[in-house]
Amino acid sequence: MKIKKNNFFLVFLILFLSSLSIAACGNSSNTAKPEADSSQQEVDTLFKKAEVLFEEDKNLQAYKIFKQLAEQGDAKSQNVLGSGCQHGFWGEIDLKQAKYWYQKSADQGFREAIYNIGALDFLNGKHKEALPYFEKSAKMNDSNALNMLGIYYSNGILFDQDYDKALEYFRKSADQQNRDAEFNVGQAYYYGEGVEQDYNKAFVWINKSANQDYSLAKIQLAEMYFSGKGVNKNVAKAVEIIKPLAELGDPKAQQNLKWYIDHPN
């Protein structure tokens, strides 16, 4: 079954509510630079400790360290704190506080935070407000920002639709092994947008993205195996690729899996 092309240009994490009961993301009146006796080495050590705690699902303990470092002026911790507020890692989602901490980090020139402000605005439908942040981050060679500029041109957002320009940005991002961009380069070849249609090249790029566990790429890869586009037809392989996604509850994967089983020929 065909998958509509526009469904493939999703580039953001879905915001979700956390089950945590941590009352966090509070505004802080103390955002001074680190104290003189707080060496960068000490900051880095604490940051890594917080990362480990977060990976162990000890979110409250991790939050306390990130908050301490963020209030001392550490740009990387400010960005992490903003991400936690955006995605509900510290408690309820708080987009206002997410932007507050992103801005603190961005004011120090932290590339990822600059991109994150743009992403936050884009998610809220503020495409015009988001663009300068993407452009600034892209000038710093941020792969996500480069991919987003490709999205703007590919979908005709604020600019006239320009597949050649879109592909240029997608390639720059894909050169950094950005899985979204790899997928978008593959889609360009699949549909012949900005380049001559070539299923073989599309398969190469979509496979790269799928190997980075990008679900949209896996769905498209399975479709290519099922239809025999860019690769020898292999229904069993298509089922093998898409079945885990279906079992995780992905509705498109479930729909396609049923089709592959019911219509193997």
Summarize this structure as a short list of keywords or feature phrases.
single chain; 265 residues; mainly alpha; Serine Threonine Protein Phosphatase 5, Tetratricopeptide repeat; 3 domains; 63% helix; globular; disordered N terminus
Structural class: mainly alpha
SSE order, one letter for each helix or strand: HHHHHHHHHHHHH
Q: Which parts are unreliable, with pLDDT below 50 for 5 consecutive residues or more? A: 1-24, 27-37
Overall geometry: globular
Concise overview:
With 265 residues, the protein is an all-alpha fold. The chain has helices at residues 40-55, 59-71, 75-87, 95-106, 111-123, 127-139, 143-155, 163-174, 179-191, 199-210, 215-227, 235-247, 251-262.
How would you describe this protein?
This protein has helices at 40-55, 59-71, 75-87, 95-106, 111-123, 127-139, 143-155, 163-174, 179-191, 199-210, 215-227, 235-247, 251-262. The protein is an all-alpha fold and 265 residues long. It folds into 3 domains: 38-113; 141-212, Serine Threonine Protein Phosphatase 5, Tetratricopeptide repeat; 215-265, no CATH class. Helix 7 (143-155) runs antiparallel to helix 8 and helix 11 packs antiparallel against helix 12. The two termini are 12 Å apart.
